[in-house]
Amino acid sequence: MIGRRLDKRVIEAVAHLPFRVQTKLLLAFLAIVALLVVVGAAGLQVLTGVNERTVELIRSERKIAAYRQVQHDTTSQLYRVTSALLANDNRSLDSALRQLNQFGYDLERLQFVAKDEGELLGRVKQDYDRFVAVINKVVELIRGGNVAEAREAQLKEAQPLANSMERLTNQLVNKAEADMVAGIDASENAYRTAKLDVILFAIGSIAFALLLGRTISWSLVGPINEIDARLSRIAEGDFTQRVAVPNRDEFGALAANVNRTCEQLGALYQQLEAASQHKSAFLANMSHELRTPLNAVIGYSEMLQEMAEDEGLDQFLPDLAKIRDAGRHLLNLINDILDLSKIEAGKMDLYLEEVDLKALVEEVRSIVVPLAASGGNRFDIVCPDQLGTLYTDRTKLKQSLLNLLGNASKFTQAGRVALELRAGDDEVSFIVSDTGIGMTEEQLGRLFQAFSQADASTTRRYGGTGLGLAITKHFCEMLGGRITVESESGAGSTFTITLPTESAPAMLEAPEPVAATPRPAIDDHRALVMVVDDDPPSRELLAAIVRREGYRVIEASDGEAALSLAREHRADIITLDVLMPRLDGWAVLAALKSDVGLREIPVIIVTVLADRGIALSLGATEFITKPVDRARLAAVIRENVRGGGTVLVVDDDPESRNLVRRHLDKLGWTIAEATDGGDAFEWLAGNLPPAMILLDLMMPGMDGFAFLHEIGNHPEWRDIPVVILTAKQLGAAERELLAGRTREIIEKGADDLAGVLRRTVVRLPRSKSALAAG
Amino acid sequence: MAKILIVEDNEMNRDMLSRRLARRGYAVVTAVDGEQGLVAAETERPDLILMDMSLPVMDGWEATRRLKAESATQTIPVIGLTAHAMTGDRDKAMAAGCDDYDTKPVELPRLLEKIEALLGGSGTSG
Ligand SMILES: Nc1ncnc2c1ncn2[C@@H]1O[C@H](COP(=O)(O)OP(=O)(O)O)[C@@H](O)[C@H]1O
User: Fold this and answer.
1) Which of A15, A317, B58, B85 is surrounded by the fewest CB atoms within 10 Å?
2) Domains defined along chain B, listed by start
């Protein structure tokens, strides 16, 4: 855990170094080379040590050999001397003495070589010198013929010396051998330690090199991965996040570039998305506007045709027919475009019902027979006797079939057009085949795209819009099915629609459950704000802001939920996000504004888009861009929460009551009047509590102060906001007294009474009487 | 002669439809919005009503609902007319109580068929 964090730190630190990638790699390489050199040097040193010890051992070896020689020589000398003495002839005695002298030289020489064993050698030498002396004496005695005495001397003096020399040389050899063993041990130990050192050092170096390599490569690979991940998110259409890499090298620059590109793409994407929304809204509006005059063109041309026929003005008939046909064509085009734009905007609704297939086939037959006949085609229907029902959208299925059969008839001359139905376990296939001109591979490739006709000349020869199949495909998909095609140029085409027996299309998902918002208690008179946003965090944020302003909130997570909740709860004001799946904000806005019951509800568009103009022209009250400025949102809501409740005006002066009534009427408030405090309590007792009480202070009977005091004793009314409207010049003490109990003090005769009133009442929550009335 | 009430706010459509139906021998009366339509249905007692669905003041759906809720006008067949068939208007029209439904611009032969079918059934054609 800590290790990993440290690891990350180090990598980040390396990434953060303000060097170019090249420099970093070079530095890492140099560091590794330096390590190699150090490891090599260490190895070399160990080798030298080993070599030194080997030389040492060789020397010991030689020494041991020399000592052994001494030992051997000693023994053989002694033996030779003894036997020479025994032999008692001059020649062997001489040679034994020579030999003895030679041995002396050898010993002498050894003393220089083996300083360590100097003391032992010294003793050997001493013994030897004495031995030589004794032997000389013995030889003298023998030569003098004094053999017995010589024997005596030899036994008594030479023999112990010889024994001692033998013992000493033995010791010498043993010591040298022991030294050698110790030397071998020491050398082995030293070798082992050195080996361990070198290995440890090498391991350390390798680990360090690996770590260095890893750090460097991660500091490079990390940002690549990061950028790669970001790019794939961008490819998926998510432009919100940024690449964050600590690098200050080429990758840092790359990341910055990716970020900039992403931002620009995101902005572009939003613009495009907005543009596409506008296109859909525009098309929907336009096609309605276009259809109305087109109705007249078609209708009147038809009527003229009839009249011309009746009155025998046959020369006009062909031209009138052309006008009508052109009109019809235009109308089809507009209808198709409208359908397509609705589909693309996700606004095409489905009406699922049990569809009786037999009846549907009959309907289709009656329409297609004349179409097929006009091209000299036979129309066959092949379907099993037992045809059940299909739970689907009847109109869309029928239109899809008619599109296919219409095409088949259009592109076939004197051939055969057929509709075949096949029922599977949980699907039904509709197979439309013809023996017409067919299509090439290339034509098939772009068949289901909008505005694609097999070739440009088609329009001229066969008419059509190139939208039919695109719409048909969308319909099939909306119904949970699919459409496929097989065709051979010149031989004919076969289109197959396969639908599930029960369409449960994706388009009709149940709206997401809305955050638990209990139905507001009827006696909660605070205004109700509906927050519509598909993104939970921003919805919650908006709701929190609104709630903090003292309003009640309901939340809707998509357009459909918004519409049904608006109807159910009669929100006082709606904040509406634009970019939402399925039903987007523009569509919701349009639906709200076209619903008599809802169109009065002010709608505040809250969006990341910058389409204030569109929003206002579609009927939005205000337009706020995200991220939301809290104060502005609060102000906008405050300004737009409509009146519509009741205001109780307590004033003895009919003129001032009238004045207030006129101003508040305009704002949509209902006015109740009372002439003094007592009267006001009577009214309160018989009615639902008003949204506000506008109170004069100076009245006969129960005056304003007394009223305020009294209402404090009634928990059911105590919370009704009271605004003082008075001509009295208030002293500080009086203001103090009123301050705790009233919301605002308005002076009669204020210049801008209307404005003050408006500002005061729009801040008021909707009253329960309004709720009850609404 | 059967009397047909056309409730349609667009002047040209109203004019065109009424003239074309008149040419087929129907007596035609017109109204321009839902409320007027209701009044005309009461006073004129038409044999059949052609009701445009998107009307000002009171829309066709509401007007049809009210016609069908009123015992005096309940039996008068209503054919709902809307601009375009794909939007589910048909279902809404039928749900509001329309006896039949057609799209604008009308294809007169088809509309006449529907009118005749309804009038024949109601037995009040003349
Ligand atoms: N049965 C068919 N045989 C040959 N070509 C066809 C057939 N159906 C469609 N096509 C080709 O596909 C094009 C697009 O068809 P469609 O989307 O229905 O638009 P259109 O309204 O032009 O018919 C047609 O223009 C035609 O070239």
Assistant:
1) A317
2) 3-118 (3.40.50.2300)
